[in-house]
């Protein structure tokens, strides 16, 4: 199984269009210590020919352009045969609008996320005779193009920012925010780009995994407030931060995961600065910081 990290940043990307925080400032100035990243999405394949995107970021066209595996092989062709969604936020879904030129694929999402798309008329550009929309049951096994075995599962999460109930039910587990499990040759890989807390069920699932790509939005829960970038804590945003006794580094430490990778990293997060104290601390704890173009073979 091959996995390409198409984008490793959280919503907004890094640097973000309207931000000159201490991390973005370095990226804008071309400092090699902060490599720009597009919004979070990965591509997976068993054979390198038939690919599935997990989430579809606003930058999907640039992501396809940068990854030869995803280039068309002939006139009106794409190796992208499916898209699986893990949430309804803009960074997960906006790229779908760029996949509208008449090449078929299957769009997999939980029933709730399918309803969200159906409620937004602009997604009707993905015509039903071209794009098949399949509602995924939680924990049901799914054969992705090429036969890759996957399933989606509930993750403690949060409604998308544009939903009227956005601030309610943060950390609830259901169809709003999901992770994706891949199984291949007796090994397990997980993609969990958004997670509000490590519930016992999620901890049990991730235990002993071969690879986990996990929500790396914030380093500190109050990072946006301290940096003067916003008024929300990580907890309010539905993102478990990395550091501290209640952070994800500590929470996932006892789970015996072979390879741990942070994805969906917000532009305010100092782990984006190579050689920063925070980057070193995360790496010392056994974590890798994903970047656009990272490849994982399982
Ligand atoms: C989030 O995960 O909270 C989103 O990336 C927010 C956003 O869309 O900006
Ligand atoms: Mn997001
Ligand atoms: Zn910034």
Automatic annotation (TrEMBL):
Domain Metallo-beta-lactamase stretches: 50-265
Any single GO BP term: pyrroloquinoline quinone biosynthetic process
Top-level taxon of the source organism: Bacteria
Summary of the function given for this chain in its UniProt record: May be involved in the transport of PQQ or its precursor to the periplasm.
Family: Belongs to the PqqB family.
Gene that encodes the chain: pqqB
Pathway: Cofactor biosynthesis; pyrroloquinoline quinone biosynthesis
Keyword set, alphabetical order: PQQ biosynthesis, Transport
HAMAP family xrefs: PQQ_syn_PqqB (MF_00653)
Claim: Disulfide bond is one of the keywords in the record: no
Protein known as: Coenzyme PQQ synthesis protein B
Organism: Halotalea alkalilenta
PANTHER family membership: COENZYME PQQ SYNTHESIS PROTEIN B, HYDROLASE C777.06C-RELATED-RELATED
């Amino acid at each position: 199984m091959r996995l390409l990290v198409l984008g490793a940043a959280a919503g907004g990307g890094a640097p973000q269009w309207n931000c000159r925080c201490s991390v973005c400032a370095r990226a804008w100035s071309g400092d090699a210590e902060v490599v720009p990243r597009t919004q979070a999405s990965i591509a997976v394949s068993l054979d390198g020919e038939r690919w599935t995107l997990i989430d579809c970021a606003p930058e999907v066209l640039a992501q396809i352009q940068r990854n030869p595996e995803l280039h068309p092989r002939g006139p009106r062709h794409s190796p992208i045969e499916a898209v699986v969604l893990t949430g309804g936020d803009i960074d997960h879904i906006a790229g779908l609008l760029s996949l509208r030129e008449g090449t078929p694929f299957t769009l997999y999402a939980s029933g709730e996320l399918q309803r969200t798309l159906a409620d937004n008329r602009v997604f009707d550009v993905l015509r039903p005779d071209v794009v098949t929309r399949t509602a995924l049951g939680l924990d049901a096994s799914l054969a992705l193009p090429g036969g890759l075995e996957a399933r989606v599962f509930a993750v403690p999460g949060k409604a998308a920012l544009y939903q009227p109930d956005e601030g309610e039910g943060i950390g609830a587990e259901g169809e709003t925010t999901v992770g994706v499990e891949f199984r291949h040759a007796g090994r397990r890989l997980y993609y969990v780009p958004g997670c509000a807390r490590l519930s016992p069920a999620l901890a049990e699932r991730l235990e002993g995994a071969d690879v986990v790509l996990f929500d790396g939005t914030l380093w500190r829960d109050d990072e946006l407030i301290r940096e003067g970038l916003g008024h929300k804590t990580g907890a309010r945003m539905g993102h478990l931060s990395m550091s501290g006794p209640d952070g994800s580094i500590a929470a996932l430490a006892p789970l015996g995961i072979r390879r741990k990778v942070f994805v969906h990293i917000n532009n305010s997060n100092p782990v984006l600065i190579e050689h920063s104290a925070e980057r070193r601390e995360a790496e010392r704890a056994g974590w890798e910081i994903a970047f656009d173009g990272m490849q994982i073979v399982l």
